[in-house]
Structure formats: structure tokens, C-alpha cells
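[job 0412] stage=complex_fold ligand=flavin mononucleotide status=START
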Amino acid sequence: MNILQINSSARADQSQSTRLARDIVDRLQKSNPDASLTVRDLGRTPHPELGEAALAALFTPADQRTPDQAARVALDDALIAELQAADVIVFGVPMYNFGVSAQLKNWIDAIARSGVTFRYTDKGPVGLVQGKKVYVALTRGGLYRNTPADTQVPYLQNVFAFLGMTNVQFIYAEGLAMGPDAEQKALASAQSQIEEVLAA
Ligand SMILES: Cc1cc2nc3c(=O)[nH]c(=O)nc-3n(C[C@H](O)[C@H](O)[C@H](O)COP(=O)(O)O)c2cc1C
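[job 0412] stage=complex_fold status=DONE, emitting C-alpha cells
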């Protein structure tokens, strides 16, 4: 089993979503001692945004790219290769201003590549990243689960399904900014969810 852990908090050492993602990985490794682990920390090593130069590089045929363009595309290629090699992907996802962090959006922009991770057919899009199991540890200051204000879960479900990843489990740690009691309860609840989801 190849596990890919993707941390998307801007915080390195104090990130609650990274801690929960790590807890999920620990639990997976306990039941799969031979599993390999790759950690992609998008806070410590931010991926560049999809700007005009990056778009131009991507839309230039490989044999016509300048060295800078080839280097830029290679950064995205590395993330795609990590994703393709993984059997299980564990995301740590903080809520920032009602959405995912820019770091995670940049990762999504890097790995969504036509002809590689999805393709269009006459029947619509087909995801090419198949057979993966995905866990997402969500951390939020407030409470959004199962409300229209939770824009993260539908967004991530859409992105993952578009790419072919339909086996997705969300673990929620909510109310983390609502006082120490609420925070403790949220973290304990997240631990129970991890146990429940991974025991299944
Ligand atoms: C820049 C920023 C924006 C945030 N926006 C929201 C928000 O829109 N809704 C919310 O519930 N919490 C929000 N929070 C609180 C975080 O979701 C919460 O602290 C979470 O635990 C952060 O995860 P992390 O420790 O992995 O970075 C925000 C925090 C930061 C730093």
C-alpha cells in the first residue's frame, strides 16, 4: 500500500488539520505495517499558482518548451506522479474564508490535467485517477457540517469525482475557535470518526 499524505495548512508545526491527517496515517500504518508513506506539505513547500506563464507552458507542446517552461511543467508532473502512485490519499484541509486554502487550490490546479487525470468523451468527462481511497480531515473554527455554508465538502467531492476518486471519507473537526471545551470536544469527535471510518 502506498499512502500519500497531503497537508494544505499554511501552518507547519501547529496545524490541526495536519495533525489529524497524521493520525489517520498512523492508524492506516498500524493495520498495514508495510505501507510506504509520501508526505507532500503544501504549506512548507507551496506549489506555484496557475498563472499566465504556467498556462502558456502547459499549452506548449513538450518538444517546443523553453527550459523554464519545461521546469514549470515538471513541478506539476511530480504532483501527478505522486497521486498516480498512491493507493490511499490522506488530506489535511483547513477552512480558510469559507473555502480550501490557496495551497490546496494550487495543488488541484496542478493535478487536474486533460488527457492525464481526466478526459472528455462524447458522453462527458471521465476521471482517470481510479481505484483510490481518499480520507479528508477537515478543520474549522465554526460549524458548517451538513449546512449550505459548507462549500468545501461539495467542492472537494466534485473535484475528486471528476478525476475518478469516488471512495472519499470526510472527518470533521468543527468549532475549533468556539472555546477550549468546544475545541476538546471537536478533537475527540474527530478521533472517534477516525476510529469508526478506519474500522469499517
Ligand atoms: C486565514 C484563516 C481563515 C479562516 N477562515 C475560517 C472560516 O472561514 N471558517 C471557519 O470556520 N474557520 C476559519 N478559520 C479557522 C480555521 O479553519 C481553523 O483554525 C483550523 O483549525 C485551521 O486549520 P490548521 O490548524 O490546519 O491551519 C480560518 C483561519 C485562518 C487562519
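The chain has a mean pLDDT of 97.
[job 0412] exit 0
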